[in-house]
Amino acid sequence: MMKSKLFGLALMGLAMGMSLPAMAGGPGVYTVEGNNGEPDSGYKGTLTIVQTSKDTFKLTWNIAGERYDGFAIGDERVMAASFTSKGSSGTALLVEDDDNKGAYKSIWAFKGDTHLGVEMIVPKK
Predict the structure, then answer these.
(1) Each residue of 96-108: pLDDT tens digit?
(2) For this UniProt entry, which residues form the secretion signal (predicted)?
(3) Among 8, 43, 62, 70, which residue has the least CB neighbours within 10 Å?
(4) pTM of full prediction above 0.85
(5) What fold, for 27-39+46-123?
């Protein structure tokens, strides 16, 4: 339920053309902790976000030595991303975490998956 509510709010904001002040971290290096939506599937890693234009970003995840390359549209508050790794592709939605300044909550899935993964993305210190 939380995932669908988060997704719905993000889409509604984008559809309404809302321009909210950027509070999340935007470009930078982050620690990532998540799971792929299945029991005992936790993982940790890093995410680097590079802004490539006013509304586009390059994302690079490094999870357990595996690299995932992504491209996102949006702003520092909400990003819709596609990503690839070793011939597989997927989609992610990163949304500012109101409870953790500079951080994001993310949901993601590989193409063809029937479950969502989740991530907490926190600025690296």
Answers:
(1) 999 999 999 999 9
(2) 1-24
(3) 8
(4) no
(5) Lipocalin (2.40.128)
